[in-house]
Amino acid sequence: MLVVHEALLCDRDLDIEGRERLLEEARTLIHEQYAISHDVMGRSEVERILADLKYRLLKKLDEEALEQASDSEADEMFALGAEESAADSVQCHLPEERLRIREVLDAFPQYRETKVQKLLDALEKIWHDNPDEKIVIFVTYLGTVDLVAREIEQAFPQQGVVVLRGGDHGAKIAAERKFRQKNGPRVLVCTAAGREGINLQFARILFNFDLPWNPMDLEQRIGRIHRYGQNHTAQVYNLVLSDTIEGRIFLLLDEKLKEIARTVGKVDEGGNVAEDLRAQILGQLSERLDYNEIYQTALSDPELKRTRQELETALSNAKEAREVVFDLFQDLEGFSLDEYKPFSDVSTSLEKVAQFLSEALAGQNKRFKKIDSETYELIHSDQPNQPRKRFTLKRENATNNEQLDLLGLDHPLVQQELEHWRNCPEEDIGIAVLAEVEAPVILSIWRVEVSAQQGERRVMIQPIAMKQDGTRVPFVEQNYETYFNAPPTTPPLTLSQRLEFLTNTIEPALQRELKHKGILSSDKADKKDYSLKLIGYIEIKPLTC
Question: For residue 376, how many other CB atoms are within 10 A of its CB?
Answer without folding.
Answer: 20
